[in-house]
Amino acid sequence: MLQIGALSAEQVGVVVALGAGMLIGLERERRKGEGPQRESAGLRTFMVAALLGVCAQIVSVALAAVALLGVTVLAALSYLRSRSDDPGLTTELALVTTALIGMLAVPQPELAAAAAVLLASLLAARERLHHFATHWLSEDELHDGLLLAALLLILLPLLPAQSLMWLGGLSPRRMLALLVVILAMQALSHVAQRLLGSRLGLPVSGLLGGFVSSTATITAMGGRARSGQAPLQLACSAAVLSTAATWMQVALMASVVVPGALLAWLPMVLVGVVAPLVIGVLLWRRASATAPGEVPPGRQVLRLREAATVGALLIAGAVVVNLAHQRGDLGLMLGTGIAALADAHAPMVALMSMSGTGLIGHDAAMSGVLLAITVNSATRGVAAWVAGGRVYGLVVAAALGVNVALVWAWHWG
After folding, report:
1. Distance between CA 396 and CA 385 in Å, rounded?
2. Residue 73 neighbours by CB distance under 10 Å
3. Contact, 219 vs 383, CB < 8 A?
4. Cα separation of 174 and 196, whole Å?
5. Contact criterion met (CB below 8 Å) for 25 and 43
6. Which residues have a Cβ under 8 Å from the Cβ of 44 and sit 6 or more positions away?
């Protein structure tokens, strides 16, 4: 009996190519239609295109180039002679891609099989993708998505990766990476409310909003609770969950600033996350079933001013902490506390960066991060009281106090 392991690379390639052509061809056959308006390419055509690609690749690279050119010409002629009411090029492009997948099946059969599954899935999801692009996705959301992609794929690789000592060892590339992370969390928060609705989406939005600014999230939720736009317990749940994001942010920032030391930060992160997650979930379960209205599709996804403000605080905090370090350990802790009054992210980034470059030890960095979160928790407690009133402020401040006390107890223990 023939064993799969005994097959040569060429034989495996032929099998994979035929399977790929069949998978893609089955989807196109269902779309082909019937009668004089039917598409010209169906199951057999796609299987032949995949077989042509793999056979040409086995013979020579030159023949593979000629075969690909031939398939492209035939696809173009098919499009020109098409009698279908749909002027799209999907079938013709899929035919050329199938030939390429057949060629890929010889040197990399696993990648060819994955590409075939991906292509068939894209073809089968035509209606869903069309509805997403034309109905679900708004113009503002598309614009913000393109902006985020441009920052990530174009601008980020162009920035220098050299560390700047006046920023505590941070580089421009890492600073932009942190800004991109903030914008991505804004986008995820928006999508969560769009997909999940307000009852579940509001707490999820609070959690994701904490990655951008827990203080801003707590203030916003307090305003919604005071104005009646959100039930009190639901707003409290979102606010408390935003504090869990602050601890998760420690791991997230460590993965960007000091990836080699990420495992050393994880125990503290896990201890810090437990209390706000448990309290936030309990508040959510007790929340009123009445939830505020759905998020309108046209709502702004990326809040550039808010992200730029956080980015400016990161830079200012890094400078303050770096200057304070020159005054010794006491100056470092004092500078950390001052920087944390406005935002905990800034001193956290600076301390991690200084630890990664050897300017301070890991224990000093960890104590500084705990101090920064403690000071900022006091700021958030005051903000909750002012924005949401006495009950809202008491609930949020109590949760913050329990959270900080547990982490300090773990750290000193």
Report:
1. 8
2. 10
3. yes
4. 32
5. yes
6. 25
377-406 pLDDT per residue, tens:
887 788 788 778 889 889 999 999 999 899
Alpha helices (H) along 8-138: 9-32, 43-59, 61-80, 90-104, 109-124, 126-131
* Tokens linked to 403: 């959270």
pLDDT at 296: 44
Phi/psi zone of residue 389: left (φ > 0), alpha (ψ -120 to 50 degrees), beta? left
| pLDDT exceeds 80 at position 212 | no
- Identity (one letter) of the amino acid at 119? L
- Crossing angle for the helix pair 232-257 and 262-286, nearest 10 degrees? 170
Q: CA-to-CA distance for 260 and 180, rounded, in angstroms?
A: 21
pLDDT at residue 290, as a whole number: 44
The C-alpha atoms of residue 389 and residue 269 are separated, in whole angstroms, by 30
pTM: 0.52
Note the Cα 73 to chain centre separation in Å.
40
Residue 310's pLDDT is: 55
Q: Which tokens is 349 given? A: 């980034």
Place of tokens 């994701």: 208
Measured CA to CA, the distance from residue 247 to residue 217 in angstroms comes to 15
